Each structure stands twice: as C-alpha cells, then as structure tokens.
Amino acid sequence: MHTVIAAEALFFVLAFAKGAGIMLGYDILRAFRRGFPHGGRLVAAEDFFYWVFAWIFVFLMFRDRNYGQIRGYVLAALILGMLLYILLLSRRILLVFSTFFGFLSRMIAGLFRLILMPAGKSVKKLRKMVRKALKKKIKQVRMVIVKK
C-alpha cells in the first residue's frame, strides 16, 4: 500500500511540474512574439498548435502513468502548477526571454543590414544612372516632337 501512495504522490509532483512546464513553454512563445512581431492570424495559429501539443503532452502523461484514467487530483496539480508558475515566475522568465529574443532580433536585422548595405548602395547608383539616361532620352524625344 505504501508504494501505491508513493507512486501517486510522485504522479502529483510530475503533474505539478508539467503544468509549470506548459506555462514556461507558453511564456517562451510569448517572448518570441515580442522579439519577432507578426500578424494576428499567425499568432492565432501558433496558439492553436501550442495548446493542441500541450493537450497531447498531458494526454500522454495520463496514458503512460495512469493507464489513461483522469484523476481529479492530477488535474488539480496541473492547474496548481500553472497558477503558481504564473504568479511566481512568469514575469521574470518572460522578461529574460523577451530580452534574449529582442537582442537576437536586433542582431539578425543588423546582419541583414550589413549584408544588404553594399547592394543598397549599388542599387542607388544604378537607379541614378538609369534616371540620368532616361532624362537624356526624354529630352531627345521632346526635341524631335517640338521640331516637327
């Protein structure tokens, strides 16, 4: 009997940790969105797939540890893990990962600017040359039209 209670207590702790882990993953997703902003439809799709995978994660936990039986105390442990994570750690973790993804975003943008800057200067020079040549041709066409 003692081993059964120990196994159930371990399952409770595991469910608590998985609830906190689910919210940690969601905070990382939120931080990614802050660092790399994108549209509402993509955010909705990310949310949908994240929560589907979280549900599968919880379902597999129930299947592997409890033969698919849903126990109320395990659901309570999941929810308690989520709530305590949100109350105690979420802001700090979100700040850390938002800072990281913001830094990463700025580094990638800087790298693209560094790579594309010479191409941008070349395009500007090419545009000036084409514009100058076109103006010259337009003047020639105007002269021909005016002469006739």
Describe the structure.
The protein has one domain. The chain is rod-shaped, with a radius of gyration of 29 Å. The chain is mainly α and 148 residues long. The protein is built from four helices and no strands. Helix 1 runs antiparallel to helix 2 (40-66), helix 1 (2-35) packs across helix 3 (72-88) and helix 1 (2-35) packs parallel to helix 4 (90-147). Keywords: Membrane, Transmembrane, Transmembrane helix. InterPro entries: YabQ. The chain crosses the membrane at residues 43-63, 70-88, 94-116.
Question: Brief description of this entry?
Answer:
With 148 residues, the chain is mostly helical. The chain has 4 helices and no strands. Helix 1 (2-35) crosses helix 3 (72-88) and helix 1 packs parallel to helix 4 (90-147).
Which terms would index this structure?
rod-shaped; 0% strand; 148 residues; mainly alpha
Mean pLDDT: 85
Could you describe the largest sheet, including whether it forms a barrel? none
Choose one word for the global shape: rod-shaped
- The helicity comes to over 70%
Overall tally of structural domains = 1
| Low-pLDDT regions | none
Question: What structural class do the secondary elements suggest?
Answer: mainly alpha
Kindly estimate the percentage of residues that lie in beta strands according to DSSP.
Answer: under 5%
Number of strands: 0
